[in-house]
Amino acid sequence: MKRHISTLTMAVALLLSAGSAHAQSTVAAFKVPFDFVAGTTLMSAGEYHVSNGPSSALLVLRGGDAPPIFVLAGSLQTPNDSTKTTLVFHRYGSRYFLAQLRIQGNNRGRELPPGSQEREMARNSASESAVVVARSIPDVK
């Protein structure tokens, strides 16, 4: 009986610490003023919280009442530290694709590989692509 109580206590402690670690993994919150594609998912304009995923190859986007979206993201290194925490999008015509997450004060970030839809649009669009930046919402806890 003592063993079962001890195991149950450890399981509850583990769940509580996992929830706490998850809450601390939020990188930033952003207000994106346009619809965009993240991975293969079309996302509506709105407020999004971006956090590290359960593995180093994933980012998690949470917004509104929709379920969280997991996207593949590799590491990114820039020559200089970022001056702001930002999301970077590639634009082709009126379609936006999430491309990077840059963290203020750091020269490392995350980069999403272009999906088949973005590669197709890049092939069919001359030099119409542009970088659009969504800035973070201040005072995110």
Folded structure, characterized:
This protein is an alpha+beta fold and 141 residues long. The protein has one domain. The chain has helices spanning 2-24, 116-124, and strands at residues 26-32, 36-38, 41-43, 46-52, 58-62, 69-72, 74-77, 86-92, 95-102, 108-111, 130-135. The strands form three sheets. The chain has a five-stranded antiparallel β-sheet with strand order 7-10-9-8-11. A four-stranded antiparallel β-sheet has the order 1-4-5-6. Strands 2-3 form a two-stranded antiparallel sheet.
What is this structure, in a nutshell?
The protein has 141 residues and is α+β, with helices and mostly antiparallel strands.
List the helices and strands and how they pair.
Blueprint (H helix, E strand, L loop, with lengths): L1 H23 L1 E7 L3 E3 L2 E3 L2 E7 L5 E5 L6 E4 L1 E4 L8 E7 L2 E8 L5 E4 L4 H9 L5 E6 L6
Antiparallel strand pairs: 1-4, 2-3, 4-5, 5-6, 7-10, 8-9, 8-11, 9-10
Total number of strands? 11
Low-confidence stretches: 1-24
The percent range for helix content is 10-25%
Question: What share of residues are in beta strands?
Answer: 35-45%
What number of domains?
A: 1
Q: Mind describing the biggest β-sheet?
A: 5 strands, antiparallel
Q: What global shape is seen?
A: globular
By secondary-structure content and strand pairing, the structural class works out as: alpha+beta
Number of helices: 2
Spatial order of the strands in the main sheet? 7-10-9-8-11
Distance between the termini: 41 Å
User: Please, what is the average pLDDT?
Assistant: 78
What is the succession of H and E elements? HEEEEEEEEEEHE
Backbone CA Rg = 18 Å
